[in-house]
Amino acid sequence: MKVIILVLALLFPSGANAAELDQSYAPPSFPDAYSFLTRQVSSTSWELQTFTAGLSGQLVEVDLPIWQEPIYETGLTIDFFTFNGSRLVSLLGTLTLPNTSVPIGEDAFPPPGTNPFSINLSTTSLDINVAAGQRYAIAASATALFPEGLGGNGINWLGSDPNGGVDNYPGGAEFFTFTNGNSIGSSSALFSFGPDADLGFRTFVAATVPEPTSLTLLIAALLGFGAYRRCVTTRRRNVSTVQSPRGAPRRSASP
Question: CA–CA separation, 57 vs 24, rounded Å?
Answer without folding.
Answer: 16
